[in-house]
C-alpha cells in the first residue's frame, strides 16, 4: 500500500521493494532506499520527538547529519541504540523505532508543563541561580527531578551482541565528502594514478547532486552524472569507495578517523560481518569536500513540527519521492529557497507564497519562481506559526524602510520552509588545527591557513553552485595528487545548465513585532536555547562566545553547533554591539557526529579487552590449590594454602621454609628485553644510571632507569651475555613501557647507535629457586655449568642446559637468600619446573607465591617500583645513590637530579617503621604524621608503602616514604588509623640480615 504523501513517481527509492517498519508501536510502509525520516514523512508523520528541556513537540528539521530534533531509539534488547538521527537511519524490513524523552506518549507528554514555567525559571544558566537552598536539596531533590524531566534517550541495559573492528589504511589522497566537489577531486587524483579513498556518510555517493531536479551536467541530470562518475571511480583499482562512512575526526599528521556502518541497514545481516568498522587513515594529502549546512531562521515558534529547512524538503521530494506537506510557505533570504519552491510545486505541493526577507527579489531564482506563477513577497518575514503538534498556519509581517515589522496576514499552511543561507561545514578543517578566516561580505567563517597537508573544495570552502564546485574539486584533486608525487592536471569542467546558485543569507534573530519575553524563538533546537537566552547571557556578563556557549548550552552536546553556531554568534554579536569576529568562534571538537563505544572499542571487549596471560606453570599451580591474583594482565599464584590455612598462615609457612631450606617461585612475568648490537653497551650507558661498558660477559648488575625528570621509572637485574648482547629484565608491569621508552630514544635521540631491541618476555619461563639449599636442588639437574660458589658467584650468569633443555642460569636473589633464576624456553617451563620440584622434595622444598615474595623482599628492604615509588621518587630518595655511575658523562635523567627541588633535605625518603606493639600491622597507604592528633590541614610527612607480618623479624614491619626520613631514624612518629593513631619508630628499611651474609651460604 502506498503511503499518503508518497509521490506517484520519481525519487531514488526502489518502489518494487516495499518494506514495513514500526514507530512507537504502529506499523507503516516504506521502500528500499528510504530513511526512517523519509518513510515517516511519506506516511504523514511529522511529530517525531520532544525537546530536551521544555518537552515541546518537535518534527523533522533537516534530511542529514545536522538533524537536531528527530533523535530516536532503534532496535531491541542488546541491539537497541538510542539517540540516532532518523534522517540517517536507513529503512529495512522489520525496523523497530521509538521516540524519546516523552511520557506517557509522544502526543501527550506531561513534561510539556516545563514550557509553561514562569519566564526566567528555566532560562539560560538557571541551574546557577536557582535551587540553591536549602543546603543539600540540590543533590537529593532538585537534580534527580531535573535529570528525570530533561534528557534524550535511555542507554540499553543488555550487552551488545555485535562485534566491531578496526582497520588501518594508507593512501595518497583522502577525499571526505562525495558531492560535486568530492567526486571531482577523486576523479582528478585517481586519474593521475594516486591511491584514493573517497568517504561519504550517506548510503549513496553523490551528495547534493542526488537532490537536484532541474540542473544538468554534460547534458544529463545531475544525479545521472553522479552515477556515471561513481561507476568510473569504482572501476579504478586505485580507488576505495566508502559509503555509510562518517569521517568524525581529523588529527595530527593527516590522521583521520572514519566509522563505516556495515550492517545497520540490513534486516538480516551476515553474522560474520562486524556491525561497524573504524578506519584509521593516514593520508599524504587530504581534500575536504564536506559541503555546507543550511541555516534555519530564528523566529517565534520556529520549532513546531512542519517547520523545515528548504533544502531538506527539496531532498525529500527529489531523492525520496515524498511530499513533506500539502501547502507550503517558503521563507527565504537566499536563492536556494526559490529552487526548493520550484521543486515542490513541480511535485504537486501548493506553494502558497514565498516570503522573501530581502528587499530585492529580482535574482534568477525569484524570476524563475514568478515565471512559474508563484507569489513572491519581498521585505516579508514569518513572525509566528499556529498549531501545536503540527503547523496549521503562519503569520507574516512586513519590514518597513525603518526596519520595523508591521503585522500582516495569516496564511494557512502545513509546511514552513526556511532558507536562511548556508554555513560552510568547517568542522574537520577546524579539527585539523587550520585557521579559519571570516568572510565579511557573506558573514561566514571559511577555511583559511592550513596546518596540515589538506585543502577544502566546494561549499565547505564557500564555493556554491555545481559548476563552481566541480571546477574547484578538480583543481583540489589535481593539487593533492601533485603534492603526493604524481603528475596531475585538473580536467575541464563539465557543462552545467539549469542550476540556481545559492546566494544571499541572513544572520541573527528575525525581526518581529511581538513581545520578545513572551515568545520562544529557538537558536539551538537540540538544547532548547532561544534568542532571549543568548541575549540574557550577554546581559549577565558573558562576552566571549565560548562563555555564551557554556552558559546557554548553545551548540553543545551531539549537535556541535551545526545549525545553531552562526545564529547564536550573530545574536550575541548584535547584543554586544561588536563584529562577529571580535566575539569569537566556538571550538569544533571531534566527533563530528556521535560514534558508538563499540566502534572505538573494536575487538577490545570481554577477554580481548583485558586479556588473561598465564605463566607456563599456571596449570601446575592450579592443581596445587594456588590462589591467584591479577598482576597487570598476568594471573600469578598469590599463595599456596594447605588444608585449614588462611592466607596469613600459608604465607608465614612459605616464608619460613624459604629461609630454612628452599622455595620455588614462578618469575616468568618479569619483563625481558634482548639488547643486541655493537653499540649495546653504550646504549645501556645512556638509558640506565649504572655503568655497563666494563661489565664482563657472564656477570649481572642491578639496573636503574630514570625518566627525563630524574624520577625512578623501572629497575631490574641485567646480565651481559656477550660483548654485544644484554639480557634486560624489567618489572612485570613495566615491560611494555620500558621497551617503548627504549625504542623512542633509539629512534629519535640515539640514531647514531647500532642496536636492536627484542621483547622476549613470553619466550622465557623463569623459575626462581631460593634458600640455603638452592644449590643442592639444582646441582643434579644442570649440565655444563659449575654452580659452586667459587665458579658462579652472586650476580653472575651462565649458559648451558638443565634437564636437557637450554638454559640461562642467573645467580640472583630477591629474597636475600642464596638464589638462582632458571631461564628456559617457555614451552619447557612446566616440565623443568616439575623436575626441579621433584628434586626439591628431597630438601622439603615449598612453592611460594607473590605475597610471600613481597614479605621476603620487604624483610631485606628491597623496593618494588610502583609500590615504593609514586612517579616522583629519585634514586637518592630510595637510598640508591650507589646505583648511579659517578664517572658516567650522561644518562637519561642525570641533569634533572641536580635540580634544587630534588636535592632538598626534606624530600620524602625511604625508611623502615616499627610499631610499638609488634602485633599491630599498619595499612599500606596510611599517612605518617609528626604527632598523634595533627591539626586539620597539617600536611602529612609521608605515607606507608609496604606493611607485612614478618616471620623472620617475628613482628610487623613496614616501609614508608617520609619527609627527611633518614634524619628521623630513632624518632617516634604516628600513623593515624581507624582505631586511633599508632606510634611507630623510624628505622633502617632492612629488617633481616643487614650485612647480606645469607647470599653466600
TrEMBL record:
Keyword annotations from UniProtKB, A to Z: Oxidoreductase
InterPro entries: 2Fe-2S-bd_N (IPR042204), BFD-like_2Fe2S-bd_dom_sf (IPR041854), FAD/NAD-bd_sf (IPR036188), FAD/NAD-binding_dom (IPR023753), GcvT/YgfZ/DmdA (IPR028896), GcvT/YgfZ_C (IPR029043), GcvT_C (IPR013977), GCVT_N (IPR006222)
Aminomethyltransferase C-terminal domain residues: 908-993
Residue ranges of every copy of the SoxA A3 domain listed in the record: 520-602
Domain spans labelled FAD/NAD(P)-binding: 172-450
Annotated ranges, domain GCVT N-terminal: 618-888
Family: Belongs to the GcvT family.
UniProt name for this protein: Sarcosine oxidase subunit alpha family protein
